[in-house]
Amino acid sequence: MNIHELSEIEQRSIEDFLLQAADDGLFTGNVLDLGCGKQPYRGLIERTSTYHGYDRVQFGGSVCGHNIGKTLTREGGWDAILSTQVIQYVHRPEDWLSDIAAMLRPGGHLILTYPGAWPVLRDHLWSFTQAGMEMLLDDAGMTVVRHEIRAALPFDGFSIPTGYGVVARA
Asked: What are the tens digits of pLDDT across the range 57-73?
């Protein structure tokens, strides 16, 4: 398997995870897509909510820096924040997640995807286990609602996770 095939598997698994999140009614109200890139999930979110995309390419700010809450505050909080494949680039993920928790309205959801066993690309800073991610979310004051392996590769009788998806409630 080459990197392009792995990338396609990963992309499909992200889309499936987000479709399930939409089916679960998690994209309602005002939704911030943090690190949206070219906004590939905008259409999915706009079916049921108001979409707000934010990415350093379009807006010049860093989605990976601490104090994103100062840039992206919203009166009353965000109903949901989506962040796909961003946290591995964040300098201080514990501070970043605390900022996100503060930006969510009480009961709001963070829908987050992150890579598992994946080749280190560009400037990845972190790799996370499920237990490690759950600890970070708990420390940020969020409750994990769902956490799953999105995609895995078979290897010698077991599977190696290539990506995870998590839903956490503020």
From this structure: 665 555 555 455 555 66
**What is the number of other CB atoms lying within 10 angstroms of the CB of residue 82?**
26
SS3 149: strand
Residue 55 is encoded by which pair of tokens?
């990415």
The answer to whether the CB of 130 falls within 8 A of the CB of 148 is no
Q: How far apart are CA 59 and CA 37, in angstroms?
A: 11
Distance (Å) of CA 90 to CA 57, 62, 79, 168, 169:
16, 10, 22, 18, 20
pTM for the whole structure: 0.87
Residues 6 or more apart from 48 whose CB is under 8 A from it? Answer: 22, 25, 27, 28
Give the Cα separation of 65 and 89 in Å (integer): 9
Closest CA to 64 of 102, 85, 91, 31: 91
Contact present, 41 and 70 (Cβ < 8 Å): no
Tell me, what's the pLDDT at 153? Answer: 79
Spatial separation of the C-alpha atoms in residues 150 and 11, rounded to whole Å? 10
Q: Which neighbouring-strand residues pair with 159?
A: 154
Burial class (CB in 10 A: 0-12, 13-18, 19+), 160: middle
Tell me which residue of 68, 80, 71 sits closest to 112, measured CA to CA: 80
